[in-house]
Amino acid sequence: MSRREYDLVVIGAGPVGENVADRATQGGLRVAIVESELVGGECSYWACMPSKALLRSAGALRAARDVDGARQAVTGTVDVAATLRRRDAVVHEWNDSSQVEWLQGAGIDLVRGHGRLTGEREVTVDGADGEATVLVARHAVAVCTGTAALLPDIPGLRDAQPWTSRDATGVREVPASLAILGGGVVGSEMATLFTGFGVEVTVIARSGLLGGVEPFAGEAVAKALTDAGARVRSGVEVERVERRSDQVVLTLSDGSEVSAAEVLVATGRVPRTGDIGLETIGREPGGWLDVDDTLRVRGTDWLYAVGDVNHRALLTHQGKYQARAAGDVIAARARGGEVDDAPWGRHVATADHAVVPQVVFTDPEVAAVGHTAKSAQAAGMGIRVLDYDLSWLAGASTYADHYRGQARAIVDDERGVLVGATFVGPDVAEMLHAATVAIVGEVPLHRLRHAVPSYPTLSEVWLRWQEEYGA
C-alpha cells in the first residue's frame, strides 16, 4: 500500500471534478483526482454529449422539411446507423485518452480506481490491479461523484432488466418499441430521440411532461410527440412489470397494459454517495450532501461536495459553475487568502438558488431560466406574466414555414426586473443566455428597452415583451 500527500484530493473526474481540480491547481495547490470509470464522466460519455449528438440528426431533418426548397431535397428518413456512428465519434469511442492528456497538461495527478473516505482528509483508492493507494489531503477533499439513475420500487421492474439513461444513449441496436417511465428531461428527450428513429414509443408520465417548467412547455412537447406517432399516457402509474419472452409488459393503475421490446426508467436520480466511506466520518451513506454557499459540507472544515451530489442543481453547467467557486475558495483558504463569500462573491455559488438556466433538447426545444409564474407567486412576489406567440415574429416567418413557439417572461412588478423566462420552439436554446444575463444582472426593464434586438430575428420577442409591459 502506497501513501501520497496532496493539498486537495478530488473524488470523481467528471466535468465538475475536473474544474475543481483545475481551479485549485491554478491557485497554487497540488491536486490529485480519483476516477473509477472514464475521465470526463457521465456528461461526456453517457449523458449530455451523446444524447445531444443522437438528437441532432432527426432534428436537422425536421428543420429541413419545414422549409420549402429544402424540403424537396429530403428523400429519406434518418439513417440510424450513421447517427450512431456520429455518436461514437462524439464520445471518442468511450476512450478518455484526450481527457487524461488534458489533466496531465494541467498538472493534475490522476489516480485510477474507486476512492473512499477512510478518515479525516484521507482517501483510499482501490485500483483495478488490487493495489490500494492512500491519498492524504493537507487541506481538503472534494466529493464530485455525481448521480445515478433511480430505479423505483415497482414489482418486477429490476427482474425485467430495464434500461437506464446510459443504455439509451449507448444503444447499439435500436428496439422496435420502447416504453419510457417518467416525463422529466431524460424521459422527454429520449422519447423525442427514439420517435425520431421510427421506434414505437410510449411515455408513461403520471403528471405529464416537464413538470418543472411552465405548463405550456410540456404540453407542446407532448403534442409534438403524439403528432410524430408516440403515445403519452398521463394520470396513470406502473403497478408491476414482467418480461415475457421478447416483450416487457407493464400493468398500469387503470388496469391497462403496455408492451414494448425494452423499458427505459427515467424517474429521477440518486446521489452516488453509497460507497465512498461517508460512514467513517459520521455521515449517512447514500444521501445528498448539504453544503453552504462555498460548497463546503456543513459541519466540516475540510470536506466539499460539488455538483449533483449536493442536490442544488443537477445540471452540468451549474455543476461547473459550482466547481469554479469551490476550486477558488479551497485554494484561497489553503493559502490563507481572503474569502469572498458574500452573495454573488467569487467564492460562492449564489446562482444555484434562483437563476438556473436549462435547455431540454426535445421537439420543440424548451429553454427556461429563473422562476415560473407558479414558483414566483409561491415566493410571494407580485408579478406580471408576459406571453408572446413566437410565430408572430418576422424572424419566425423567415426561419420556417410552420414555426410554432411561445415565450413567457415573469416580471417582479415591484422592482420592474425580469425574474424568469421560458422559451418553447425550434432552436430557442440560443435565446436563453440573454434572459439569464438580464435576471442575474437585475437589469430594469426600462433600461432593457434600449437593448435593441436585431431584425428579423426571434430576439425581437424582447421588444414585444417591453411593449406589453409598457416599459
The tally of strands reads: 21
Average per-residue pLDDT, rounded, comes to: 97
CATH homologous superfamily of the largest domain?
FAD/NAD(P)-binding domain
User: Could you name the ranges where pLDDT drops below 50 across 5 or more consecutive residues?
Assistant: none
* Outline type: globular
Distance between the termini: 68 Å
Number of domain modules: 3
CATH architecture of the largest domain: 3-Layer(bba) Sandwich
Overall structural class, as computed from helix and strand content, comes to: alpha/beta
Contiguous helical run count = 14
The description of the largest β-sheet is: 7 strands, mixed
- The CATH topology of the largest domain is FAD/NAD(P)-binding domain
| Rg over C-alpha atoms, rounded to the nearest angstrom | 24 Å
What helical percentage do the residues reach? Answer: 25-40%
- CATH class of the largest domain, named Alpha Beta
In terms of quaternary structure, the protein is single chain
Strand percentage lies at 25-35%
Protein name: NAD(P)/FAD-dependent oxidoreductase
EC number: 1.-.-.-
Cofactor: FAD
Keywords: FAD, Flavoprotein, NAD, Oxidoreductase
Primary descriptors:
471 residues, alpha/beta, FAD/NAD(P)-binding domain, Enolase-like, domain 1, 3 domains, seven-stranded mixed β-sheet, 14 helices, 21 strands, globular
Task: Give me the secondary-structure topology.
Blueprint: E1 2-11, H1 15-26, E2 31-35, H2 41-45, H3 48-65, H4 80-90, H5 97-106, E3 109-112, E4 114-119, E5 122-126, E6 132-143, E7 147-149, H6 165-169, E8 177-181, H7 185-196, E9 200-205, H8 215-227, E10 231-234, E11 238-244, E12 247-252, E13 257-260, E14 262-265, E15 269-271, E16 303-305, H9 316-334, E17 358-360, E18 365-370, H10 373-378, E19 383-389, H11 394-399, E20 406-412, E21 417-425, H12 432-441, H13 445-448, H14 461-469
Parallel strand pairs: 1-2, 1-6, 2-3, 6-16, 8-9, 8-14, 9-10
Antiparallel strand pairs: 4-5, 5-6, 7-15, 11-12, 12-13, 17-18, 18-21, 19-20, 20-21
Helix pairs in contact: 1-9, 3-4, 3-7
